[in-house]
Each structure stands twice: as structure tokens, then as C-alpha cells.
Amino acid sequence: MTILVTGATGTVGRRIVGQLAERGVPVRALTRNPGKAAFPAGVEVACGDLTSLETLAPALEGVTGLHLITFGGDDYAPLENGPELVELAAKAGVTRVSVLSSFDETSVEAALRAGGLGWTQLLCMEFMANAFDWTASVREEGVVRVFGNHPGAVVHEADIAAVAVAALVEEGHAGETYVVTGPEALTPEERVRLLGAAIGREIRFEEQSEEEYRASMRAAGVGDDLIEFGVRLGAEPMEAASVVAPTVERVTGRPGRTFAQWAAENAAAFRI
């Protein structure tokens, strides 16, 4: 059973590749830049792009399991070729699929829903790894600035990967939609405090106004659409963002990793 992992160099994809390799499962990692990819020994690397289906046919040869993301290209735009992608996978002999989704359905989920492949959907609100956005301000100023200090059940990227791996290699997950969260809902201010404890340095938390947030995003070169999206989330977060789901423990048999654990694992990135 060979499993193809798309988005293999990403935050979650890299973890999926690693966990499959640890299990001894033959894994093929899809990337647009094989020369820059670094994976564990034994992982096969394939060059391909989800927005260019002609590059996927060779990567799918001999594959029975497939992990999909729902965006592609340099602009991370939602994929519009879902039907063609799913058809190509089915013709290649894929029988089991996991999909890392947002709460906005794309052509990929719609095509899987209409097709005959066994697939499992993973829905995540916010990754713990998003805290890497704070790296520069923590290192340079000892501060984190956030617009909207609302609680969120942020999830460790390794736990998302563990649920995906279970769906790909174990029976009983086809047809399921799993909301994957961390084991607690924490505000950004609470996460900053935990991060400070991990690095052994007090970090100041500052809640931004909407105007300050817009100005900082413009200064960072963020586009207007993403700024408006961030404003909406900061002002009126989705209620589901703070709801803790039991998925990780139910699927993997162990509790989800806490943000304190994530902070300890990644403390070096925030130290001066």
C-alpha cells in the first residue's frame, strides 16, 4: 500500500509523511520543488502540482491511499479541478482518501462527495503552528500584538497528521467528517503566557484595535481580501472555533497535545 501525500512540505503534510514512514508504510511525497524537500530516509519524492493534472498521473502510479489538500499554486487559491483530480485518482486505483479542509467547501470535497472513493474529511479551525507568526516580534521586541483576544481550540499539527494517518491506514474511517481540535480553548493572551514560560522570558501581550491591525497588515504587504478576512475573524469569530472536540483521543487512542507542549517543542524559534 503506497500512500501519496500532497502538500507534503507543508505544516501538516510533512508530519503525515513522517508518521507514515515511522509506521513503515510506503509513502510518496508530492512537491513542486523536489530539490528543496527534505524527508526521512525511505520516503519517495515525486514532482507534481495539484493545479497541473498532467504532472499527477506519474505520481499516482501504484498508489492506493491519497492525502489531499484543497488549494494550490503560489496564491493558495482553492482548487477548481476537483472532479478531474478525483477521477484521475480513481482511475489510478486509489481506494482511500483523507482531505484536510476548511469550513468552506471546494470543488475537491464536492467531487469526492459525488464520487465513489472512500474518503475522510478533516476540519480544523486553527493550527498551533500559527504562533510562528509571532516569532519576529517576540525575538525583537518581546511582544505579541493580536486583534481579537478570543478563545480558540488550537490544534497541534502532529495531531492533525495522526488523525489523517489513521484514516489512511486503518479501517472504519471512510465517510466520516472529523473536526480536529486541541484539548483546550485558549485565548491568544493565554497562549502568549504559555509561550513565555517555555522560553523563560516574559512576553508582553497587546490587543490591537481594528485600525492598528489593518495598518500592520498593510505594512506587511497583506492583500485587502486577507485583511478583511482577518478583521471578520477578529471581530466576530466562529462559535465553533472555541469548541473542543474529542476527535484526537477517539481516533488515535491518546489525548491531544497541549499548547504548552507545542511551545516547549518550538521554544528555540522564539529565543533571541
UniProtKB/TrEMBL annotation:
Q: Where is the NAD(P)-binding domain?
A: 7-104
At the top level, the lineage of the source is Bacteria
Xref: Gene3D superfamilies: NAD(P)-binding Rossmann-like Domain, UDP-galactose 4-epimerase, domain 1
**What's a Pfam family in this record?**
NAD_binding_10
Protein name as catalogued: Uncharacterized protein YbjT (DUF2867 family)
Q: What is the native source organism of this protein?
A: Nonomuraea rubra
Q: What is the lineage of its organism?
A: Bacteria, Bacillati, Actinomycetota, Actinomycetes, Streptosporangiales
